[in-house]
Amino acid sequence: MTETHYLSDWQPYPFNVLETRLEFDLAPKGTKVKSEIRFHRNSPGDLVLDGAGLRTKALRIDGREIAPTDLRQTESSLTIAQSALPEGDFTFSAEVEIDPEANTALEGLYLSGGIFCTQCEAEGFRHITWYPDRPDVMAPFHVVLRSDKPVLLSNGNPVASEKGRAEWHDPWPKPAYLFALVAGDLVAIDDHFTTRSGKPVDLHVWVRPGDQDRADFAMESLKKSMIWDEEVYGREYDLDVFNIVAVDDFNMGAMENKGLNIFNSKLVLSSPATATDLDYERIEGVIAHEYFHNWTGNRITCRDWFQLCLKEGLTVFRDQSFTSDMRSAAVKRISDVQTLRARQFREDQGPLAHPPRPDHFQEINNFYTATVYEKGAEIIGMLKRLVGDENYRKALDLYFERHDGQACTIEDWLAVFHDATGRDLTQFKHWYTDAGTPQLTMIEDWQDGHLRLTFRQETPATPGQSHKPPRVIPIAIGLISPNGDEVLPTTVLEMTEAEQSFVFRDLGARPVVSLLRGFSAPVIIRREISADDQALLLAHDTDAFTRWEAGHDLALAALMALATGGEASAGYSDAIGALLAHAETDPAFTALCLALPGDDAIATALAARGITPDPDAIHAAREGFARDLASRHEAALSRIYATMAPVGAYRPDAEGAARRSLRLACLALLSRLDEGDRALVLFGSAENMTERLGALGQLIAVGRDQESLALFRQEFAANRLVMDKWFMVQPHRASPETAVARAKALAARDDFDWKNPNRFRALLGGFSANHAAFHQADGSGYDFYADWLIKLDPVNPQTAARMCSAFETWPRYEAGRREKARAALQRIAAREGLSRNTSEMVTRILAAGS
Ligand code: TRP
Ligand code: ZN
Q1: Residues with C-beta less than 6 Å from any ligand 1 atom
Q2: SS in 3 state form for 822-837?
Q3: Nearest listed ligand to the Cα of residue 120
Q4: Which of 232, 311, 466, 726 has the fewest C-beta atoms under 10 angstroms from its C-beta?
Q5: Is residue 1 scored above 90 in pLDDT?
Q6: Which CATH number characterizes residue 411's domain?
Q7: Residue 134 counted as domain residue
Q8: 519 is in which domain, residue-wise?
């Protein structure tokens, strides 16, 4: 049985670490690690260290070998009794040997394409040496690296460097999860930054030889991030160098190791021919995210892993604000809401629902979730809305001043807001501790020129939490008169009760409520609204989010009706007609309005209303609806497709991306009529990856892809990142009936390098994103997917476990699919030697159906 960890069990570590000294002799099969850890006692207790998979050669206290009788060792810990320890400060030292080449889990020290690199968050450092591997034990690190690799990097500032040896010192106390080293044959692009107080910083982006012409955009993004954090949060960089390294094998996106960020190469490398607009935007956003962690995560870190959203929610909020400043705030907000709903609402409605600050877990790696990251960011946004911009900045200044160098909790965070603003946040805290998405119902009552809005909130039960007290919900609204004028500008209503009314007096005519402007709280809205009123909002609302939402709701209502045997109203199609007439004034917004909700979103919306979703019916409804829409607006769509053709050279900025997104949105609809004629032309003529991949997706969807796929492969066979797209787009866009066979054929290819997480995620993630394919009624999608999770688990448990979430919606389907999904999950669960990671995931997912 695996152990469950509880928040309530947290105890302070009895020691401080005054300094950590490490020496590495790097070799693929046998890397020697010598450590010297200087301890200072704070309170009574034994010395307990974490370690896993270490070949221990020596253990000493103050230079003397520790007697075996003074040691207790388990599979994952080492305990030295207090009685065997000196009274004052002492040095624990160890010599261990580890095997980076055998490390396929990509946790701890491993090799990626011949480059030694590390990933220590959350608990990877224990795979490197014996250590108090918990985030509240912080120390300055001094590191010596010996290796025949030409480039040797670690955290902090370089102290000395000669052939085969480098020495690094990181003066800022940090927990072990922020430790990193890199040793490899790398080249850098170099730049400089001077902080606003005049401190010079050397900047390097390290990549494999040959990739250096694709690293400039990452460097530009870094400099923009550094300026932004100074201007908006008053935060300066604090070391002499900042290094970014790109590696091909990485479990997640990137990692904020102090002064040495390590990135999945897909979030560093870009060129117009190989990266899409979305790739560029993500690179900019993730470079910013990791850089921003230097203050929110590193200088101030988490007391324990239950507090993960303290650093992640805040840092996501910061990177989202950065992107909206760099690009279009409206587009950014709408796409963030789309992601939140697609991932976090889905999570919150299923068996994996958990609070942004969980109170128990088995495997912390399973809690790097949409709830911790994206909902964590929404919570910060609400807090900012409630206290106002000025107070928010005051609170953050206090946070940095009060907690610099500390390991903190959500309570510390809220106390700062309380102390800076005087606001009582007791009720607000429920956003952190309670799982589930509140459902907010609005009822309108119009009488004698007065509008009474009554809101009711209710949060459904989630695993382990049956009762949810009312939360404070900032509801931003505006009122639009029937002639389209705004009669009430954005006003934030603060709801604190289960049911609450707000009255707006002396209005001339009955206005339409623009509800939840800017998506002011992560809730599900229930309201009665006519298609005419939605159209009015789509045409006249002053808030971009609620404008978009009006169109989105019309589309969703039509699709839900069609998917359940009903008829679609003409509301959405009419509204789109009006929008297309002046599409060029805001191409990005028009593109967002043209993108129909996906199959999974339709299924989620149906399930939330208690209707069992039928994946085939949903798919057919969406296809039919898209075709009708295309025929009805064919002329306008073709015109816009032509006028949105590229002007001038490709630039990855918001304006260019907006035009391309509108063009591709038109193409998606038109391809339903021309069977891919335009897509074929575009694929052959486009010079940028955005348009080529967009065209290729349409060709696959209409089944005219063989030649283009072969050309694409020939051209990009040597580029791993582009080939990942090739592996992703096929199972994703193939018709549901052919997708399983197709995915199987792809998986059988020699170049399906499944131990590489990007490649594995491309094929399997592309497949599971094809809703009707994954949920094939005969269970073949589930079986195929489960087979691969079973194969990946012993090699890379972290990635296998994360990808189990494809199954998280299984209880909402009909009995036939449910039984097949259950059988597939049980087959995974029954595997001998299944990892703790995957075992926790399938157990939680299966629990929902019992
Ligand atoms: N802290 C990283 C981030 O948010 C996340 C991360 C990178 C991570 N690699 C990981 C988390 C491995 C768990 C395991 O930017
Ligand atoms: Zn992060």
Answers
A1: 119, 121-122, 251-252, 254-256, 289-290, 312, 365, 368
A2: HHHHHHHHCCCCCCHH
A3: 1
A4: 466
A5: no
A6: 1.10.390.10
A7: yes
A8: 439-528
